[in-house]
Amino acid sequence: MQSIKNHISLVIALLSILFSIQIFIIVDRSIASYKQNLTNSYSMVIVSQKSIDNNTTLGFSPLISSVSELTPDSIIKRLNTNMNNKNIELLKLSLPKFYKIQLNSYPSPDEIKALTKSILRYPTITKVEDFAHNHDTIYKLLLLFKGVVAIFAVTIFVVTSLLIFKELRIWQFKHSERMSIMGLFGAPGWLRSAVLFRLALMDAFISSFMAFALFTYLSYNSWVLQQFGNVGINIIIFNQIDDFILLFGTAVFLSILLAMLIVVGHKEEA
Amino acid sequence: MDKVVIAEDLSLSYSSEEAIINQVNFSIDSGSFVFITGASGSGKSTLLKSLYGALKPKYGSLVVGGVELRKVSRSKLNFLRRHIGIVFQDYKLVKEWTIEKNIMLPLIINGYGKDVTQKQVDSLLKHVRLTHQAGKYPLELSGGEQQRVAMARALSHNPILILADEPTGNLDDYSSQLIWNLLEGANTQLKTTVIVVTHHIPVSMNVEYKHFHIEYGRIHAVN
């Protein structure tokens, strides 16, 4: 019982930090995935008096990933009931050229403005449709979501830091006495702090494995997967190797730092 | 006879305070039993602290077990302390360890093997009549029992020197007698030097002893 009590406070504090880190990673991955979805479905339309070759269009900006010409066939089809083929061909020649451009990343409103300006500099281009209004709304929503998550992460970090600081004071008090007594009997520094480092490492192990178990469960939970599926996001919620190494490394680093602070702050009893 | 403690013009003080022990000279023979007495606040415990290096001499020289304590390195001090057994008035037991583990502490620090350690601890627990309490924690024991544990810990590694600060203060007669017997036994059988700081020297001492008295920062040999 005593042994569990010794561990539980630091384990909870470490677990909170690991939880907030992994949540932040999941949100970041979700936003990146959602941005990719938006990028794939987002396009701009260019209207030109004359045809432009693809290389020229790609040269307008490195943001542009592909260009395709939009054929006016579907519009003409609706009109062609009383027109002969010759007239249709003439109409086709007199119509401006439409091009759909796709981008390699989801642009910010400023990037859209800059891109539009750059395209309009080309003499034969008369109009660029950027669907800026829809784009702006989605982009601002994404920014808001990111901001809320950042506030959440910072809040957890602050609260957990306070918890760890409080735990540090308790540990300092608890271990100082033992370290002093060991010192009075000639224990070298490494032996005096060995218990402390062992406890810290054990807590790092416990909290990392608890985080591992929790996120492994969540990554296979059908309800969680369904929620992501509903918004068209397909991400790895928890990478059992890379993410675990990151969480375990963080827990070890924090707990060793805590133990070192105690050892450095320890004053020999006179 | 070898000297285990040699003090020359020794002055002791806490930070910038006036000297508590002022330019004293004395020496203690190896294998002797020594009492240091004095009124409260006379500097008895301060002197004892200096003997295990918890307080460095302000002036003069203090050599304990061949180690000069005025400018001692941490590793040399640790080495010296590994050969000293200390009994504190407030016991200084590790509360989260069982009494068995508390007694083991000096043996672990000195690198004894598991078998030797366990054998020695079992024997000491028998001597201090606490075999049945081996698995308990210090706070589960009475003051007298805790001091007996502290005594067993001080003896566990067969030190060359035992320093005891008021070892029987506030203890019942049974525990006090047990502690004096153990100190006498260490001195006579193991030839361990014993230095005891106390207000009163017990009347029923069975060993020859030397008596120093501290007054006004000076130390006087009484016998």
Overview of this structure, please?
The complex is a heterodimer of chains A (270) and B (223). Chain A has two domains: 2-37 and 137-265, no CATH class; 43-130, Alpha-Beta Plaits (2-Layer Sandwich). Chain A is 71% helix and 9% strand. Chain A contains nine helices and four strands, in the order αβαβααβαβαααα. Chain A has a four-stranded antiparallel beta sheet. Chain A is elongated and about 105 Å long. The mean pLDDT of chain A is 83. Chain B has six helices and ten strands, in the order βββαββαβαααβαβββ. In chain B, the strands form two sheets. Chain B has a six-stranded mixed beta sheet, sandwiched between helices. A four-stranded antiparallel beta sheet of chain B has the order 2-1-4-5, covered by helices on one side. The radius of gyration of chain B is 17 Å and the shape is globular. The interface between A and B is medium-sized, with 19 and 27 residues.
Considering the chains and any ligands shown, give keywords for the structure.
heterodimer, A: 270 residues, alpha+beta, Alpha-Beta Plaits, 2 domains, four-stranded antiparallel beta sheet, 4 strands, 9% strand, elongated, B: 223 residues, alpha/beta, six-stranded mixed beta sheet, 6 helices, 32% helix, 26% strand, globular
